[in-house]
Amino acid sequence: MEYFMGTEAGRRVKSIVEGLEEKITPTICLAEVYAKTLKVEGEEMAEAQRVFIKERSALTPLTEEIAVEAAKINVEMKRRIRGWSLADSIVYATARVKKGKIVTGDDHFKGLEDVIFIK
């Protein structure tokens, strides 16, 4: 979201977003970006961002393996982090299962392992 909004945090991740290294996007993140953009800027911009995301990364659906890992993460994190959501758990589980890192400005992820925090 920060990249699309053109914020300072978004400018800091520009090289990652536009770089050649492999990137994955959990489909739940696509849904979040699409919904926020649809609400604020309309369907045409939401579609443009969807296409951009698909061209720059591999979309990763919620598989059974990711769902089970997300459930385990969700139970643990809800005890530790106020406001932690199932969506947060799905994103974190996707990174764990795919052995990747999360690039985010979401405060829920601050200080967690395998997170590149951009704010």
Structure explained in plain terms:
This protein is mainly alpha-helical and 119 residues long. The chain has a single domain, classed as Rossmann fold (3-Layer(aba) Sandwich), CATH 3.40.50. It is 61% helix and 10% strand. It is built from 7 helices and 4 strands; from the N terminus they run αααβααβααββ. The protein has helices at 2-5, 8-12, 14-18, 27-41, 43-56, 64-80, 86-98; strands spanning 24-26, 58-60, 102-104, 115-117. The strands form 2 sheets. The protein has a two-stranded parallel sheet. A two-stranded parallel sheet has the order 3-4. Helix 4 (27-41) packs antiparallel against helix 5 (43-56) and helix 6 (64-80) crosses helix 7 (86-98). It is globular and about 40 Å long. The two termini are 12 Å apart. The model has no long low-confidence stretch (mean pLDDT 92).
- SSE run: HHHEHHEHHEE
The radius of gyration over CA amounts to 14 Å
CATH topology: Rossmann fold
Which outline best applies?
A: globular
The portion of residues assigned to helices is: 55-70%
Number of strand elements: 4
Give the low-pLDDT segments: none
Largest sheet, described in full? 2 strands, parallel
Tell me the structural class: mainly alpha
- How much beta, percentage-wise? 5-15%
Assign the CATH class.
Alpha Beta
Q: What's the pLDDT, averaged over the residues? A: 92
In CATH, the homologous superfamily goes by the name 5'-nuclease
Distance between the termini: 12 Å
Report strand order across the widest sheet.
1-2
CATH architecture: 3-Layer(aba) Sandwich
Number of helices: 7
Total domain units: 1
